[in-house]
């Protein structure tokens, strides 16, 4: 394949252009965030199911998994993840329950924390998904494409909060080698992607009677959170964690104490305060090194070629000389 | 002592082994990114505990990719600008490749070959194109993770999926390549040449007759 230097740079220019175009539309799109004010949440005492949880289940019921049974274990292991007989479980995250209310007792206070995907600014689940099933939307939310997900659960492993939940016996992997690869489909909150794309508000936000949630433009939500934290002496969670997220919690007690309680009670979902974004800290510096290497090795190739003519050429010339 | 003819210079061998060794590391860590290692107990093997952490596996993948990118880009620019096009397929190469492969197994006779066998030229084309896809998408993924470029969600899906699929094809091509080098005895001198740089004159005379005619008695003969 002949590719002249000029063609190479033209191709490079086209690729760069193609990559930059979506950036424009991305920058112009509205980014949202949610403020979760736990000073206002009472876990919906008196209600059978917290209203946010009920609204979420109602909103997404058509998208819940319907596994094909019997479900094959994840060979060579004997286990598989099946929540289909625990559909009514509302006290934790499952493929059938994408938000739950976590009860915490700190400093003599009982707090209720609605927990779901934080929708990170730089989501490791999206970066790590080998199938591209996870994408970050222009609105700032991370969404799993249930038709593309293979259920490897890597997203759960790389998520600092281990939010996505797996259901076996459903999804694309069944069409390939269901015994040997894949494990189902991952499920989590997508911030009501189809609603917010229409300019509507997520179901959990609307359902809350205590106005625990405030959903709005990201800048406004961040500003509001910082102002209230300063004015009322509250603590913020979600603005720094994992490099920043689209979900901010406001609490009357420090989040270190909340996480301490969750650690002591061996809670499935913790709230660690010190969460660096490992892509930013550990992986991207190597990525920069790779870009530099690409430039330097290209330059080295060009310089080397200019200094050394093709051996074939020079040999040919030698042959020609000999023949003269 | 037998006469030896230089087949691969030091640069070519360095390029080949840089791409090969980093390619092996990329295959291993790429499979680890899939994820498969936990399920298949790899993380429990002595010395492989690090494969349990996706971030560590990704880091090693990136480090290996630095060497891979270095080898591939140097190769492209250096040989492209020098017009070293001996490995670019020629007409009839597909048919002649089959003849060479069949002859390797004792069926029929090999057509007279130049420095590169027709099957090598065909393999170079396919492996080269695949490397451009897997390497190109990998490079774009790095830029995306750096957040220097932002892709639309659909483009992001396409990019990740293309990298994974072309990575799978790379593994397949790697296996075919290694199979033809190790399992086909007539190719063993080529492996030796990729290590030492030289092949025996007798081998060249027999198998690369066209190349032999071009160089005989003039260059690179040692005795």
What is the 3D form of chain A? globular
**Quaternary structure type:** heterodimer
CATH superfamily of chain B: Transmembrane di-heme cytochromes, Chain C
Order of strands, main sheet of chain B, comes to 2-1-3
The structural class of chain A is alpha+beta
Distance between the termini of chain B: 6 Å
Number of helices of chain B: 8
Number of helices of chain A: 10
> Beta-strand level of the residues of chain B, as a percent range?
under 5%
Query: How many beta-strand segments of chain B?
Result: 3
Fold and architecture overview:
The complex is a heterodimer of chains A (324) and B (223). Chain A has helices at residues 5-28, 51-60, 124-128, 154-158, 193-197, 203-207, 218-232, 255-264, 278-307, 311-323; strands at residues 32-37, 100-106, 109-115, 134-136, 142-144, 165-167, 185-187, 213-217, 235-237, 247-251. With 324 residues, chain A is of the alpha+beta class. A four-stranded mixed beta sheet of chain A has the order 8-1-10-9. A two-stranded antiparallel sheet of chain A has the order 2-3. A two-stranded antiparallel ribbon of chain A has the order 4-5. Chain B is elongated and about 55 Å long. Chain B has helices at 10-32, 54-82, 93-104, 118-145, 153-182, 188-196, 201-207, 209-215, and strands spanning 4-6, 198-200, 221-222. Chain B contains eight helices and three strands, in the order βααααααβααβ. Chains A and B meet through helix 1, helix 3, helix 4, helix 9 and helix 10 of A and helix 2, helix 4 and helix 5 of B.
